[in-house]
Structure formats: structure tokens, C-alpha cells
Design brief:
It is built from four helices and 15 strands. By secondary structure, the chain is of the alpha+beta class. It has a single domain, classed as Fumarylacetoacetate hydrolase, domain 2. The strands form four sheets. A seven-stranded mixed beta sheet has the order 1-10-7-6-13-2-3, covered by helices on one side. Strands 12-11-14-15 form a four-stranded antiparallel beta sheet, with no helix packed on it. The radius of gyration is 17 Å and the shape is globular.
Amino acid sequence: MSLPSPGFFSNQPDFWQVAAQVAPTVRDFIAFEQHVEGTARAVGVDAGVVPEWYEAPAFYFTNPYALVGAHDDVAVAPGSTLLDFELEVAAVVGRDGASLTPADARDHVFGYTIINDVSSRDSWLDGDQWLLGKSMPGFCPIGPWIVTRDEVDPNDLRLGCTINGVAIQDGHTLQMRFRIPELIAYLSRHVTLRPGDAIATGTPARLEGPLGPGRHLEAGDVVTVWIEEIGELTTVIA
């Protein structure tokens, strides 16, 4: 598929600019099957996706202090040689909620934005330490705006990423194992949702293109992640 035209994001609906402030919590799901398969192959595991992944959404808490604004640069962490990106749709919670049904979950969302879940994949972060690779300062660019929930269907969106203008992801939220209302409802059965919480979805698979699935980020790279009907978020790796 071809990338959106330069005017793709013009004539957008009403937006609220996302400020570079800390959300109460940031929760992240792993909802794209092909990404799970690709990650397993990257670390030398050929067993595929474990059966448990299909039964219930997999999620984790990430560090809200890693959030930065949409126009901030991201520095390579000291000692890191395997810096990576993850394009994600994020739902921003608008009101408190607990034990929600999927039908109720939508009404607790204020709107949707973009997250680039920057990650260090160095070997010392293997095993139980992997979450530290997502928690470093500046590793979670967000924005540049929120589209209110009445303006967009998050379950039917094309999304992708380029590095220095070359496509490396081109996916669709229809590829997710669980729809966003299901993710939010599942989460609300275990923790209380609070206004301002950011709930991300995980990232689609990489393309088998010129950059290849093993391409990591380097200083000077310009990473643009985009989601139709929401916008685009561009980050420079410093």
C-alpha cells in the first residue's frame, strides 16, 4: 500500500493540543499478533504466539515520567545500541470507571492520540528487566493532539511509520486481536480508570522493506508515526 499523500491530514476535525504533562498512568497492551510473532523471532524463539495470548489481553504499566511532547527530541540512552520505536494508538480516559463492559467503555474515553513507545532492546534488558527499556526519560512521545471520541472509530484506522521518509510500518487496527473497547473493559476489571490515563494498544508488524525488520534507530534519524483521522507525530533521535 502507498503512504498517505502530503495533504492527507488536512481538513481534520476539532483537536485539543496535547500538553507535555504527565498522565496519571500509562497502560500498554500487546494486541497485534504479527508484532508478537516478530518479537519472538527477533530473540530467537520460534515457538510462535503462546495460546494464553489469545485468551485475554496482555498489558503492562509503563512509566508516565517517560512522556514528552510531540515536538521534543529523544536522546539515545547512555550505553544503548539497540534503540527501537513502536507506533501505537492511545485512548485517553475522560472519566472514572471500573468493571466496565465493552459497550460502556467507549463512553469513558475522552479521545484518541498517538504514542511512540520508544524502547531500548539491549541484551542487559532481557528477562525481567525489559520494562526498564521503555521507561527511560523521553521514551514516550505523545500527541500532537487528541481527537474526541465522537470524531473517529479507533477500530477502523490505518496506521504506519517512516524512518527518514522510508516506510517501515503500514498496518490497520482491524489487525488487533482485541478491539479497543474490549481492552479498556478488561483493564477496568482489574484497576480503576482515572481521567487522563493513557491506554495504548501495541504496535503492528514491520514491513519487509528496504530498512528490514531489524533496523534500529540511530542519532539523526527522523521517525514519523501516523494514524489516519488522528494525525502524525514526528520525533528526531538526538
